[in-house]
Write a structure and sequence with these properties.
Bound molecules: calcium ion
Number of helices: 3
CATH topology: Gamma-B Crystallin, domain 1
Low-confidence stretches: 1-41
Number of domains: 1
Largest sheet: 5 strands, mixed
Strand content: 15-25%
Number of strands: 8
Oligomer: single chain
Order of helices and strands: HHEEHEEEEEE
Radius of gyration: 15 Å
Mean pLDDT: 82
Structural class: alpha+beta
Amino acid sequence: MSEPLHHSPQGRKRKLTALALSLMSALGLLAFAPGAAQARAVADHCVVNLSTDEITCAATQSKAFAADAAAAEEVGIQSVTLITLYDRTNYDPAGGTRSFVADGSYTCSAAYSPVEFSVDYLDAANWNNRASSVHTYRSCDIKLWDTVTLSGASSTWIDNLANLDTIGWANRAGSYQIS
Ligand SMILES: [Ca+2]
Ligand SMILES: [Ca+2]
């Protein structure tokens, strides 16, 4: 059985922070291993699954989506993408991607308030000050925050933007919210 989708934002935020911290530990260990640079590049496309609380990484964006879909299907969940962050502009996946997926029934609400999901600590995922384009789906929009703690300056709500530099937000986001 999948757990209900409508967690409180606070509970969800704590869970994602814990996941991000364990990923940081994993990356920290890799940094001391031979071939760390290669290991890091291989895992530079990740899918964060809100329904299973799993983070799946692979060498390419399509492989990361496929691996997430396979893992989610094992517990009866069909993943749909809510947002994807791209290191490069123009939704070019070559520099790395980070996607946020939920159960197939999920659609963001039309209103921006309340915020539906908050993601802190992009630094722990090696994504601080990195996103240069962003694509959203399922009626979701994204708001970027300068720091990793949802504080400092914030962007407007963004639907899709091929070049975040046009609003002064390329290589700047440390955390973000979805609504
Ligand atoms: Ca970038
Ligand atoms: Ca920043």
